[in-house]
Design brief:
Number of domains: 2
Helix content: 55-70%
Radius of gyration: 38 Å
Order of helices and strands: HHHEEEEEE
Strand content: 15-25%
Number of strands: 6
Largest sheet: 6 strands, antiparallel
CATH class of the largest domain: Alpha Beta
Length: about 200
């Protein structure tokens, strides 16, 4: 074999080795690097999409849905209850409540058993204390309101009386404490931002 043939054979072998090396490297890179990069990228994308997107979206949606549902339910419940209460009062011949004096409120609270009810977050909550105190006051002929106190940190439900000698007073139904309360005051560690009274 001549020098030319040997050189051509060497060039052909070198080309074949280069092509084989290229394909071997491509297959190793594709099989190892691409595959592991793909699965690593998919896992990271899923984790970030789930963590940032789904969980944040769920929290925002849950908060908005609760707020809107609470407002709609409160409004509709008040309207339905008011209408039913007016019908019941008309059928029963009505009743008359009067605003008490401050001392009458103190005497009434001393005799009331509402403050001795056992608090149970799964059963008896602050609204039920306020409703029970309002009902006891009505049985004694006293006009008593339910005060929904909106705080920066949540909502509290109290009672109130429009006394004939000292004006509007608020009562914590769980303790019978008579408290002074105005917008901007701090109650239960939070600032009072709104008060709604339902008589």
């Amino acid at each position: 074999m001549g020098v030319r043939e040997k050189m051509a054979l060497a060039a052909a072998v070198t080309a074949a080795l280069c092509i084989a090396s290229f394909f071997a490297g491509f297959l190793v890179g594709y099989g190892g690097g691409f595959s592991s990069g793909w699965s690593s990228g998919m896992k990271r994308a899923w984790d970030e999409a789930y963590g940032s997107g789904y969980l944040a979206g769920w929290a925002a949606g849950n908060s908005t849905g609760f707020s809107e549902g609470y407002a709609a339910g409160e409004s509709e419940g008040y309207k339905s209850g008011y209408i039913q209460g007016a019908r019941d009062a008309a059928l029963a011949g009505g009743f008359s409540l009067r605003d008490p004096a401050y001392d009458e409120v103190v005497d009434f609270l001393r005799d009331s058993g509402v403050d001795r009810m056992t608090y149970d977050p799964a059963g008896i909550v602050c609204l039920e204390y306020a409703a029970a105190l309002k009902n006891e006051a009505a049985e004694r002929g006293l006009r008593c309101g339910i005060a929904i106190v909106y705080l920066e940190g949540g909502i509290r439900v109290l009672n109130c009386f429009s006394t004939i000698d000292r004006g509007l007073i608020y009562v914590e139904p769980q303790t019978d404490a008579i408290i002074s309360l105005r917008l901007g005051d701090y109650y239960a560690g939070s600032k009072v931002v709104r008060i709604i009274i339902v008589w």
